[in-house]
Write a structure and sequence with these properties.
Keywords: Signal. InterPro entries: Solute-binding_3/MltF_N. The protein contains nine helices and ten strands. The chain has two domains: 125 residues, D-Maltodextrin-Binding Protein, domain 2; 105 residues, D-Maltodextrin-Binding Protein, domain 2, CATH 3.40.190. With 253 residues, it is an alpha/beta fold.
Length: 253
C-alpha cells in the first residue's frame, strides 16, 4: 500500500512537472533566435532565464515564423518568441514587456543609387524584398497593399539577401545584427559583405516581445514572465546578456 502511495505521489509530481513545462514556438533569426546558436540566441536565452526565475521550465520548438504563429493560434504551443509590435496581433495575443530592441535598416548593394528619402513612398522607384511571415511597419504594409511600393516576398532572409546581391531586388529591410551576421556567415561567398551597405536612416525601431493567446490563465503566466524579466534587468543579467550579444555579432563589417 505504501509503495502504491509513493508511486501515485511520484506520478502526480511528474504530471505537474510536465504541465509546468511551457512549449514556446520560435524560429530562426540570428543572433536573436536560432536552434544552433548558443543558448538559442539572445532572445530565447532571456525568455528561458526570465521564466526560470519564476520557477517555470520551457522548451523551444523551432519552425518557420508563419507556422510558429499558427501553432500559437491552434494551441500546439503555449507561447511564441518573438514578435514585434503589431496592433492586429495585439487584439489576439498578450504581449510581454519588451525583451529586445531592434534597429532595422535598409540593406542594399553599394552600386545601387538610393535617392534622399524621408518617407518610404520616396523610394517607390526601387524594388524591395520582404520575408514571408515577418511583422513590418504599418506604413510598409499599407504601401504594399496599395501597390505603391514594388515588394517581392521570399521565404527567408538568406534568399532575400541573395536576390539583393544578384540585383533582383534593390532594398531589403532587416535587423542590422541579423543582416551583417548573415552576410559574414558561411552561407554567403567570402567578401559578400564588402559589396553591401545600409541606409543611415533607420527603416524602423522595433521591440521584441513574447506572445501568448489571450486568457485569464495566460494573463497570470505573462505577469510571472514580466516579473522574471524585471528581475533580470534589476540584477544586471540582462546587461550581461547584451554584452555577450555584442561580442558575438558580426555587425559593423
Amino acid at each position: 500500500m505504501r509503495i502504491l502511495l509513493l508511486l501515485a505521489l511520484f506520478c502526480l509530481g511528474l504530471c505537474r512537472a510536465m504541465a509546468a513545462e511551457l512549449l514556446i514556438a520560435t524560429g530562426e533569426y540570428a543572433p536573436w533566435t536560432g536552434e544552433q546558436l548558443p543558448d538559442g540566441g539572445y532572445v530565447n536565452r532571456v525568455v528561458r532565464e526570465a521564466f526560470a526565475r519564476e520557477g517555470v521550465q520551457v522548451r523551444f520548438a523551432y519552425m518557420p515564423w508563419a507556422r510558429a504563429l499558427e501553432a500559437l493560434r491552434n494551441g500546439n504551443a503555449q507561447a511564441s518568441s518573438f514578435w514585434y509590435d503589431d496592433p492586429v496581433k495585439a487584439k489576439e495575443f498578450l504581449y510581454s514587456a519588451p525583451i529586445s530592441e531592434h534597429r532595422e535598416l535598409l540593406f542594399h548593394r553599394k552600386d545601387v543609387t538610393v535617392p534622399p528619402w524621408r518617407k518610404l513612398r520616396d523610394l517607390r522607384g526601387l524594388r524591395f524584398g520582404a520575408t514571408h511571415g515577418y511583422t513590418y511597419t504599418a506604413e510598409f504594409r499599407q504601401l504594399m497593399k496599395q501597390g505603391a511600393l514594388n515588394v517581392e516576398e521570399a521565404n527567408d532572409d538568406k534568399i532575400n539577401l541573395l536576390k539583393m546581391l544578384a540585383g533582383r531586388i534593390e532594398l531589403f529591410p532587416l535587423d542590422e545584427f541579423t543582416g551583417w551576421q548573415l552576410l559574414t556567415s558561411d552561407a554567403f561567398p567570402r567578401g559578400a559583405h564588402d559589396l553591401v551597405t545600409t541606409e543611415a536612416r533607420p527603416f524602423s525601431i522595433q521591440y521584441g516581445h513574447l506572445l501568448m493567446p489571450r486568457s485569464a490563465r495566460n494573463e497570470q503566466l505573462m505577469a510571472r514572465f514580466n516579473a522574471g524579466l524585471a528581475r533580470l534587468r534589476a540584477d544586471g543579467t540582462l546587461e550581461r546578456f547584451r554584452l555577450d550579444l555584442y561580442r558575438g555579432s558580426g555587425m559593423g563589417q
